Amino acid sequence: MKSRMSLANGILLVSNYPSDTGYAWWLMEHFWSRLAALYAEQGGVGVVAYPAITRRPALADQPGVTIIEQEVLRPGSGSLASLRRVIRHHRVKAVYLTDRGWFHPGYLLLRWWGVRTIVVHDHTPGDRPPIGGIKGWVKALRNRLPWFCADYQFVVSPLMRQRSLENARIPAGRVLVVQNGVSPPAPEVTRETMRRTLGIDEDSLVVISTGRVHPYKRHDMIVDIADRLRQREPGLKVVWVIVGDGPALAELREKVEQLRLDSVVRLLGFRQDTSSLLGMADVALHPALGEGFSLSIVEYMAAGLPVLVPDIPSVSQAIEHGKTGLIHGRDDVDEAVGQLLSLANDPEQRRRMGEQAQQVARSRYSLAECTAAFERTARRAFGLR
Asked: Which residues of 107-128 are buried (b: 16+ CB within 10 A; e: fewer)?
């Protein structure tokens, strides 16, 4: 059991990305806020370290929070002396890292400098096979070396805990589940207003996808589905809305133009009004190759949308086939087209699935429950009262 926190000890909350990065990083910032508040209750401080401060973070206005620009244990990230000064100046006794390894030689330095507790919160995507035999034995042995390993790993779902135990071979008592959650959607404009703004007819079926446009998310598969559906049912009025930017956006735009889908595939880029965009949609698609636990999928569900996903365990884990959405073969464009046609031709099925998806999102994946679970787990891991 960890010793109780002394008065005015600090916790270092480490960001992997610059302060203006959006998407799912809002949830990590929420966790930093809650941890800083827990430490502030006991006279401590939360030090949020961004590798680059490109805009003033909202957390800067929270009492008990200090914002700094500091790389933490990244290759080629500069002098370790500045990190050591941060730890000593703020009396850092705990470090909370996102998507960092369970094992890291740098953890020895942190402990040498006085850090008592290291927690890594794993949101990394992907389905990884169990590792056994000699390789698994060696990995399990390495991941029990106390000076070089974190004290606890938080994971975002039971499936990801299984991955940590069977693939990463982390001791079971050190892997704690904090199920991801989202807030209820709060559209700023009505469905009719948003459709009118985008020039979309009310009788069109709107299929939406949100998130960073990265090859791993397979937005190109959405374009393939759109093309195949147009060939199969040329008279069906469907508009495809893709929200987000990223490294694959230019290539995706080129593909849309080559297939002459410009009039029906809308690439909106990064938007702040996602709730309103979800509110004007009818169906959601999320063909990613892997997830940790997708916030986008739960946001679709919370907005009352049936969700189409591939049969990849980490992607489909929140969806119950035939009830909250439909699950198609990993690369099966034709099956996805057939599922969309069934939903397009059956508004009652869409409504029923959407309502069930919304109920599940509210009961299992709410941000309120996620926050409560996070605080309970954090108190245990960091030894807080």
From this structure: bebbbeeebbbbbbbbbbbebe
